[in-house]
User: Fold these one by one.
Assistant:
Number 1:
Amino acid sequence: MTTAVKDFVTNTIKRDEIDRYLIGGKDFIDDTLIHAQIAAGARPEKSRVRGIIAKALSIQRLDPEETAALLNVEDEELWEEMTRAAGDIKRKVYDNRIVTFAPLYCSNLCVNNCLYCGFRVDNIHERRRTLTLDEVRKEAEMVCKIGHKRLIMVYGEHPSSGADYIADTIEAVYDVKAPVRNGIAQIRRANINAAPMSVVDLKKLWKAGIGTYQVFQETYHHKRYSEVHPSGVKADYQWRLYALHRALDAGIDDVAIGALFGLYDWRFEVMGMVYHAIDLEDRFGIGPHTISFPRLNPAEGMDLNNKSPYMVSDADFRKLVIVLRLSIPYSGMIITARESAGMRRKIIPLGCTQTDASTRIGIGAYSDAAEEQESDRQQFMLGDTRSLDDVVREFAGMGLITSFCTAGYRCGRTGDKIMKLLKSGVEGKFCKLNAVLTYKEWIDDFASDKTREAAEAIIQKELEQIKADPFYKNKKLLTTFDDYLGRIINGERDLYI
Ligand code: SAM
Ligand code: SF4
């Protein structure tokens, strides 16, 4: 380890930026209590479970004891009811929309040693690289040409990819203007998945125009966390646990949580996420904008997935998605290309709102147009590498409209404002119009003939629903919408309500 790296590991954590959030010296995850709550939830009464489902259907976040009861359900009939409720909640809050994005990996140098990750410092097989800003722009241009408007930018934790670098890369991708069929395409929202930072550093990201800030706790269980994060900055559980608290204090008002399923008992992780949402809500009035639930995938030099006693079966994966959908009903839910196409098809109807497509996670892999995945320059191996065009067409076949909308963020509908709008169903009404506008843009700029046919059929259905919905007449939105749609058909771009 060079001196610069050693200094980085020593100096990154600001103890007072953890201590200020602790209560009585403790964080909000009480491992013993969570285990006790899961045990106490065993064999829940049918009537109680139905009451909990009804609460979730009214878009109220569940209490930990209620989540514990759902996690313990064994009755098949109740699981069917919970499955239906999960889909209903998704439609109530987010309608039939699904948002797509592309990950853009900027660096794979990392001072940490997470046992599950190909980027960890001890993996000598990894080809290490931090993209220059020109290379980042090139990657973003390639992603724009596929048709994506949203990125999740991903970084290892290393002095070469600190806050200043991240801020520069955010500004770089917003600069990109890529020529496409009918004009110019741009990245309209850059979300970030990066290591926890200090408030001072987080303010730099906010100034650069960060979208959502995503930090996964990986596992909420303290002891297991220490086992799988043996060294580096990431060895500090609480520095990570309060990463999003600091972000909200720094002015970033869209934050996203997640756990890496397969590291510890999946029921415990679901409870951990509920506690995380509660603490954010209690302190800031803002819950997580999205929830991620990646499962451990094979990675170069990593054999944890053969050894971990906690790998999650497909059947349990389905259950955890349903319980998360019911427990935190207002949050978006992200399923990624870590999962196979078949699995995504089964899980999306349970309440997912976002997914990636045309995904490349090798550093610089969009520009190289690499056909095959390369284990020595990516974090883990993907389960689904289908193109955005194929995925949009599949969604259309499932009755889903792919939304490329980023309007909410650009009109200030973020943070606590979007939370209220989501809970009341009003945000969904604006989103429906913007989904149609951005979908039409995408079809005209990018769709193959086959996809265009399926997608135009979805647009017709959406237009019928919009025309019949009294909400739009009352709000006099229809006139503006019709005008914008006409202008988009004539080649104008980036019109939103
Ligand atoms: N280095 C930053 C950090 O750890 O916070 C950025 C995140 S990392 C590049 C993105 C996420 O990928 C991690 O938070 C972890 O949950 C997930 N991940 C790591 N290894 C994985 C694997 N083998 N399979 C699936 N997901 C993995
Ligand atoms: Fe580094 Fe993040 Fe991978 Fe851990 S998960 S080794 S912190 S890139």
Number 2:
Amino acid sequence: MSATIGALETGSDPRLSGRAVKRIAFDEAAIARRVSELGSEITAAYPDGDLLVLGLLKGSFIFLSDLVREITRPLQVDFLVASSYGDATESSGTVSLVYDPETELEGKDILLVEDIVDSGRTLNRLMAVLSERKPRSLEICALLHKRIVEGLHYDTKFVGFDAPHEFLVGYGLDHAENFRHLPYIASLQ
Ligand code: IMP
Ligand code: MG
């Protein structure tokens, strides 16, 4: 793709099936640079211990696969799948695990990897569930963070980018399960 900055014309990227994207928020090179930096930060932050990188599916799958290759210390990878049953009138929402990691979590240094923090509801619930498993440490690594006030009750130790308050797709993020495979992150029109 030639243009990675500014507006994309409808149909300029065959992956978009004619859907126009408003702009590219983060291009491939910017993502690669930041993921490499995050890998170095994470490597330095865990000088010892059993590091378990726990990806939240599906949104984290591309980010996680790039990130773990930039972490230069031993680690294990597992995934979890959460399901939200909240409705618009229920402010707390309900998040349950539909796939529970097989890996033993007790005593591990767990790094929970998420694509994007929006309201923080998903992570608030997951962090509560995971902390009950008695890990040695539990931290969050989010590729994107919308910095919504009063959202997430937990500190996000590692953040790729502060995200604009727009609906973003690509590099794992979807709209109705589409666009996860875009190598860049774009905002939808
Ligand atoms: P939260 O629980 O409101 O923080 O929502 C987090 C989840 O919502 C993310 O893991 C995404 O799956 C989804 N999400 C939130 N904002 C976006 C967006 O801009 N694009 C795509 N998915 C999003
Ligand atoms: Mg999603």
